[in-house]
Amino acid sequence: MAKVADSREDRGLQGVDRVVRLIEVLAAGPAPLSRVASEAGLSDATTFRYLGSLVSHGLLERDPVSRQYRIGLRMFMLGRAAIGTRDFMGAATAVMARLVQDLDETVNLGARAGDDLVIVHALESSQQIRKGASIGDTDNWHASGLGKAILSTLAGTDAEKILAERELVELTHRTLTAVDDLRRELARIRERGYAVDDEESVEGLRCVAVPIRDASGTARYAISVSAPSYRLPHHRVHETGLALQAQAQLLEALLDYQPAQHETR
């Protein structure tokens, strides 16, 4: 049974190798079936099958007049999206490093993945923190600065859906567990431009976060600074929020966000 499974896996990997070869051939420019097959080292019949499947997925196109194959629009779109993501993460890392240097506190980057909130990057400061986030961890929407920052930018129905599908667990005595309280908190976040986790997820830990919005005006990401409450007292929260906002603007520009004229960020 294991040999059968291995054989199937080998055939699958062979198929992947063939697809890569075909794409690499066409990356040099449009070509007819015979030339694609020759340069990829495949038979015409095999090449025709693979090219047909790639065309059906929009990754390749076939000119009906010249009958030549070329890279499809969807391939370009996927490549552009990949480049954009890499550029964003590189810029985000630089912004986070600057914040760590200036504030000497831990900085996290969270992202909305479907209806989940995921930590996608974290830079620790030289100072200890009680709760260190790990990349790939999920976080609470209702009790974290990252979650509330992103929720504050979503349409009301979208935010309500996320909250309705989750139990609003009381993690500390400060956690907001009533939807009405969270609605009021999100309104305050929209007004001041940053979110605060005031020991709501972990006793003794305070977090300030801002959303990073894209061209739609909603946030896919949020960035935060976390520290023990004695190192991030209430009188430092506002200045920390302003520092985060200034850096978030740089990242929002990469995502084509256009702030409204009345915004004072």
TrEMBL record:
Q: Which Pfam families match?
A: HTH_IclR, IclR_C
Occurrences of domain IclR-ED (ranges):
74-257
Biological source species: Actinopolymorpha cephalotaxi
GO BP annotations of the record are: negative regulation of DNA-templated transcription
Note whether DNA-binding occurs among the keywords.
Answer: yes
Any idea which UniProt keywords this protein has? Answer: DNA-binding, Transcription, Transcription regulation
The protein's GO terms of the molecular function aspect are: DNA binding; DNA-binding transcription factor activity
Respond yes or no to whether keyword DNA-binding is given for this record: yes
Q: Domain HTH iclR-type, which positions? A: 13-73
Q: Which domain of life is it from?
A: Bacteria
Identify this protein by name.
IclR family acetate operon transcriptional repressor
